[in-house]
Design brief:
The structure holds 2 protein chains of 2 kinds. By secondary structure, chain A is α+β, with helices and mostly antiparallel strands. Chain A has helices at about 15-30, 40-50, 50-55, 85-90; strands spanning about 5-10, 35, 65, 65-70, 75-80. In chain B, strand 1 and strand 2 (about 15-20) form a beta hairpin. Chain B is of the alpha+beta class. Classes of the chains: A alpha+beta, B alpha+beta. The interface of A and B includes residues 9, 11, 13, 38 and 64 of A.
């Protein structure tokens, strides 16, 4: 299974809404997402910034949260989405 | 970045920051009353009482800002409180009221686009959408 990252913000309501979906995905599909908070952790923020050329064009030109990202495939899913959409994205990464 | 400058009304000391001075002062209605000044002079005239804003003052400011607009502050108060936690945490930690749902790039001019309220009316989450909202959902389109 490829490495999957969820960039999130502590006070971002969309991120909060996605957390139960991520929990469910990890439990049911046995995938792991590395959850990296970016507004209070500068190291995580710098990591997200390092992927800006890949992430931003797919997220309205900005670094938005939540952003789901696979470093190996460079595939990006951003924003609050349904569980099924998140699952489809995660499983697609292989 | 646009070459914006500070201007001061020589009648009532209103401050304007822009490419050119207003022809009519919105406060005292004097015509052709604005003269270019330095950012330091503008800061001194603005005074220390303008340097900080409490959460309640900011909440009141954005309510007033939306009064005559097609959008309003999200009626979901719990969501608004969470977002204001983020906005004020960002101001404390990073200097300005940055959106808690987008990360700043460290390019100051670029990051000005993230200061709340941002220009969300051009964003795909708001533009041409009946139930449009800004990315973080602090502002939502009014129901018709």
């Amino acid at each position: 299974m490829k490495k999957l990252i969820m960039f999130h913000g502590r006070e971002c309501p969309h991120c909060k809404a996605m957390m139960p979906h991520v929990d469910r995905l990890e439990k049911e599909e046995h995938v792991q997402l590395e959850r990296l908070e970016v507004w209070h952790d500068e190291k995580n923020a710098d990591l997200m910034r390092s992927y800006r050329p890949v992430i931003a064009p797919k997220c309205g030109g900005q670094l938005r949260t939540p952003t789901f990202f696979c470093p190996e495939t460079n595939d990006v899913l951003c924003g609050e989405v349904t569980y099924d959409k998140l699952k489809e994205w995660a499983l697609k990464q292989g | 970045m646009l070459n914006k400058k500070f201007y001061r009304c020589f009648i009532c000391n209103d401050i304007h920051f822009g490419l050119k001075p207003p022809e009519i002062c919105p406060t005292c209605l004097a015509k052709n009353a604005y003269v270019e000044i330095t950012s330091d002079e503008a800061a001194r005239i603005s005074g220390p009482n303008q340097a900080t804003m409490t959460r309640e003052q900011f909440r009141a400011a954005i309510e007033k800002f939306t009064e005559k607009n097609e959008f309003r502050v999200n009626p979901d108060t719990a969501r608004v409180e969470t977002l204001l936690d983020g906005v004020f945490a960002n101001e404390q930690n990073h200097g300005l009221k940055y959106c808690p749902c987008r990360l700043r790039t460290k390019d100051f001019d670029e990051d000005l686009k993230l200061v709340c309220p941002c220009n969300f009316i051009i964003h795909e989450t708001y533009k041409d959408k009946e139930d449009g909202e800004c990315w973080c959902s602090l502002f939502v389109r009014r129901k018709k």
